[in-house]
Amino acid sequence: MKILRVLLFVLSMIMTLSFDTYCNGNNQSLIPRPMLINWLDDEFILKSNSSVSSESEKLQDYFDDALRTLTGIRLISHKNNTGSEIRFILDPDFNSSNKEAYSMNISPARITISSGDETGLFRGIQTLLQLIPAEIKLKKDSDSIKIPCVKIFDEPEFSWRGLNLDCSRHFMTVDFVKRYIDILAYYKFNTLHWHLTEDQGWRIEVKKYPKLTEIGAWRKEADGSIYGGFYTQDEIREIVAYAESRFINIVPEIEMPGHSLASLAAYPENSCEGGPFEVTNVWGVHKDIYCAGRDSTFIFLQNILDEVIQLFPGKYIHIGGDEAPKDRWKECPECQARIIEKGLKNEDELQSYFITRISRYLSSKGRDIIGWDEILEGGLAPGAIVQSWRSFQGAIDAAKSGHFTISSPNSHTYLDHDPDDLDLRLAYSFNPIPNELTEDEKVFVLGSEANMWTEHAPQETIDSKLFPRLLALAEVFWSNPQSVPGKADYDEFYNRVQNTYADLTARGIKYGRETKVITPKTNFDKTKNEFTVKLVRGQKDIEIRYTTNGSAPDVNSELYVDPITVRSTANLKIAAFKNNSIISKAITLGFVYHKALGSKITFANSYDERYRAAGENALVDGVRGTNNIHDNNWQGFEGVHFEAVIDLGKAINISRVTPRFILNSNSWVFLPEQVEISLSNDSMNFTDKRSILNDVQQKNSEIVLKDFPAEFNGTTARYIKVNARSILKCPEWHPGAGYDAWLFIDEIVVE
Asked: How far apart are alpha carbons 634 and 152 in whole angstroms?
């Protein structure tokens, strides 16, 4: 039937006198690209005297409001029509079984959007809104809009096209969530996967258990401040109703059995050890999870899910199931008794029991569960949908066992990943359907989701994290261009992305990078005693601007044209701009002239080759590291203390020695407990030892750069020894407890 519809539409386009390809110079910013499209030569002129009519009053009201918001134009009713007209037609004979399918015909006199369902009409309205030129949306006070004439038939390849929005690590306001529902609708997504509970915060009001929000919604940050927030049930109902009006289904995620510290902080009796616990400010995987041996735990979760069901009318509840360490279960008498009672082999099967028990309860309430691919371990609960994130393997295993799956491997869909690692091209190359599946097995792939985890992404950064890469996934999810050889054309898609930047700006979306936009290459010339910095562009049509006084670059800062020369201590800050909007965080290169610059340095313990920075001379090369341990300026030492000796070449007066270290506990990088610095003139006998203790709390979710300065008041010496005492192993509170800890050091500045 689908092939027949396509053939009929192609035939109608062939019969049209003016058949143009997609790249004929008309409005080329439609994303996702429609299935079939025929640009015509004429234009439809939309004015305030144009009329709109619809068999769906709510869609007519929606279009009126959306058009007025985007352009300032208010349309008249159909009965007062004196100009061109727009019609939304619910056609019972519409030739498609897909409720999201629609057709569009724009002639000089009329715009007609037809579908067999309101959902399809709504998707077609989004295409029409995209066809409005961006310059009109920027002005918002036009009285006439030219829209290209076109014929379109369109329907999605996948029934599941989602965005996973993590509001637990960083809380987002009601208005912000509603804004993203509108953004998802604009790009024809149909699912908001709303991540509401985590170790770092519980965000959903539960009437039966008020401490979940009184305690679980708030965490103490390293600086002592309190951070958090939650959604009342009335606010959730408001958001759900708003999503329904945009034909977006919300799937709540209530994490279990792991990622549950915020819940356990409020009700520790549901753990294996009984607490006490606190809502953590450290990201990662934590060992304290719900106890699987106590029936009271399941009663607690069932009561929560009863309230969740009342708030979310959709068919699906996501229960997480990922990253649940079994350490506590192995030591818990109740959990071990459950294993024996149920005849289970191990703790993996105990997790399967846990998930299956919850699944059966939700099934009795008419709901189906979704879980991350770890729920495959130990046996899959009947009817469970697997969201595959660690790779494609979870989707393959689920489909081959006859279970539906959402294919969202982190390699292609985790947009919290830096564009250096997951860029626009890689996102567009994604095919959610694994090649290993047979034709019969492929039907179990429902679709995919973009994932926006917010460990390092507060609300104000979300736009720049998601865009423009979300555009690539929007097209992948709608039309799956990689599924047919020759169908995908990245260059053509890339041109549409360039054309749509103005549209993003008009709608207030502060987009970020397509890829790694700036690669600095630094060289120090000993003869001239100067640094030269060359900046390599990685993205089209960007300007690079910089400052040398430490201030943040803006559109008025110095434009990069030729390599930059640095002849004195300076903080060079560099940023990329597109259409006068900053699209990257500023890169900071701290250049410091000091007495050890270019000196010989020897190490007692070797650095790890993965984190060698510029090599042997990196700690005395004059370039300071940023808060990114991957910026090629930090040397990393795993599970060992740091000790190095600097040979200045001759005895000089030394007033201060300052090594710098970094704390990034989420990457298992910790500050030294203590730093000792001593001096010598013979490289054998070191005296004048200075000890500097660490005074920064290691249990910290933030990245901290810390100097450990030692004062010497003009002591004469040739050799400097720096000894930093590592904590060696990740501490007990850390997700990596017992594993080797990292120590990262930057420039050792000698004055």
From this structure: 54
CA quadruple 562, 563, 567, 569: dihedral positive or negative? positive
Q: Which residues contact 588 (CB under 8 A, 6 or more apart)?
A: 571, 572, 573, 574, 624, 626
Tokens 């500045």, residue located: 749
Task: Count CB neighbours of 158 within 10 A.
Answer: 20
| Residue pLDDT, tens place only, 231-281 | 999 999 999 999 999 999 999 999 999 999 999 999 999 999 999 999 999
| Residue whose tokens read 């279990």 | 256
- Torsional class of 717: left (φ above 0), alpha (ψ -120 to 50), beta (otherwise): beta
Give the Cβ contact number of residue 718 at 10 Å.
Answer: 18
Is residue 128 helix, strand or coil? helix
Is residue 64 within 8 Å of residue 171, measured between CB atoms? no
Tokens of 165: 């929005």
Pairing of strands 623-624, 587-591: antiparallel
d(CA 454, CA 700): 16
Q: Give the Cβ contact number of residue 6 at 10 Å.
A: 14
Does 11 score more than 80 pLDDT?
no
CA distance 661 to 704: 8
How many residues in total does the chain contain?
751
Residue 493, SS3 per DSSP: helix
pTM of the model: 0.85
Tell me the three-class secondary structure of 389-433, residue by residue.
Answer: CCCCHHHHHHHHCCCCEEECCHHHHECCCCCCCCCHHHHHCCCCC
